[in-house]
Amino acid sequence: MRQQLLALLTRGPAHGYELKQGLEQLLGSAYPQPNVGQVYVTLGRLEKSGLIEGEDVEQTGRPNKRIYRLTDAGREAVVAWFEDTGDEPRVRDGFFMKLALAPLSGLADPIALINRQRRRHLNTMRSLSRLAAAEDRDNKIAQLLIEGAMLHLQADLDWLERCQEELE
Length: 168
Known about the structure:
- By secondary structure, the chain is mainly α.
- Helix content is 65%, strand content 11%.
């Protein structure tokens, strides 16, 4: 959540609840909604590390709120995050380890593992399809997020089919 909050602060100063709402509006309901407590804990850590600065602002009849702004170091961290190409392809996969070790252990049937994983992926695909239908069509970011998740699931389903062909 660190990088996401820093990136949102490039638009200008904001308080924690505004940042939480910004993520929710941008990503839609497909993305796990951020916990406001986690947002504030993360903001505190970002402030301690010098990536953001906070300032208390008085409010009439309400508790003070803390407004955060990006520092130069924070801006550099966002630029570095955008330049990072991300994770390598998934090679260390928990499911694959189960599949590889099941025959050696004698405690699980590899085909049963594949079928259980396939059902899970298909149920997730159905949930994502319902979510896509319910999501605001104008929120292109949320639609792309859902589409990307579905494409990854389809690739996993294809791979499960290949595993089953090889192991039967």
